[in-house]
Design brief:
The structure holds 2 protein chains of 2 kinds. By secondary structure, chain A is an all-beta fold. Chain A has no helices and 12 strands. In chain A, the strands form 3 sheets. In chain A, strands 2, 5, 6, 10, 11 and 12 form a 6-stranded mixed sheet that branches. In chain A, strand 5 (33-38) and strand 6 (44-50) form a beta hairpin. Chain A starts with a strand and ends with a strand. By secondary structure, chain B is an all-beta fold. Chain B is built from no helices and 11 strands. In chain B, a hairpin with a 5-residue loop joins strand 7 (64-68) and strand 8 (74-78). The radius of gyration of chain B is 13 Å and the shape is globular. The mean pLDDT of chain B is 93. Classes of the chains: A mainly beta, B mainly beta. The A-B interface holds A 32, 34, 36, 41-46, 49, 90, 94-96, 98-101, 103-106 and B 4, 33, 42-43, 45, 48, 55-59, 90, 92, 97-107, 109.
């Protein structure tokens, strides 16, 4: 069965410093993995996706994620945080038992000036 | 292309009433999925419709139902509302199915009093 664990419920960084949001997954086969972002009172926006091509995936707004099969991880990074990055981020794996995407619990990112 | 639209954006209902939410997917997308988002449970999959047929269903009671029309627009209905149904209801559309990248609408905030 597929599952996803976001290791931090809340991450706080200063503007201009790197961002690291951690995600581990469990899958019985090679999964598709996604990161979504949700700004307050908004829907979810797709940041990036991994679908068994390149292991380093570049997304929008300077975010990227690396698929590491040996570590079953798909961490999200950004070299320099911006105030507008403050939001909640969801790691998602495909292939739920009901034929759906499975969402992690979310990581709330705060960015201090 | 226009994004996913959901109406209404906000709703206040009383326990025991019923409610219908509407979702218009991105043009050309045939798959529409519905999710419930609450602070306690996170994002939970309700169901997916594809070409007017319910293709997948999550673990929600029968009070939650949906349908899809020939133009791919979808409606979700909740009957006999309970306080616990208060949530953000998100609709997502996809070209081919719920396990692939999905594009989310802004959501409908339902408050049950």
């Amino acid at each position: 069965a597929q599952s996803v664990t976001q290791l931090d419920s809340h991450v706080s960084v200063s503007e201009g410093t790197p961002v690291l949001l951690r995600c581990n997954y469990s899958s019985s086969y090679s999964p598709s993995l996604f990161w979504y972002v949700q700004h307050p009172n908004k829907g979810l926006q797709l940041l990036l996706k991994y679908t068994s091509a390149a292991t380093l995936v570049k997304g929008i707004n300077g975010f990227e994620a690396e698929f590491k099969k040996s570590e079953t991880s798909f961490h999200l990074t950004k070299p320099s945080a911006h105030m507008s990055d403050a939001a909640e981020y969801f790691c998602v794996v495909s292939g739920g038992s009901q034929g759906n995407l499975i969402f992690g619990k979310g990581t709330k990112l705060s960015v201090k000036p | 292309k226009a994004g996913v639209t959901q109406t209404p954006r906000y709703l206040i209902k009383t326990r025991g009433q019923q409610v219908t939410l509407s979702c218009s997917p991105i043009s050309g997308h045939r798959s529409v999925s519905w999710y419930q988002q609450t602070p306690g449970q996170g994002l939970q999959f309700l169901f997916e419709y594809f070409s007017e047929t319910q293709r997948n269903k999550g673990n929600f009671p029968g009070r939650f139902s949906g349908r899809q029309f020939s133009n791919s627009r979808s409606e979700m209905n909740v009957s006999t509302l309970e306080l616990g149904d208060s949530a953000l209801y998100l609709c997502a559309s996809s070209l081919t199915g719920a396990v692939y990248e999905q594009y989310f609408g802004p959501g409908t905030r339902l408050t049950v009093t």
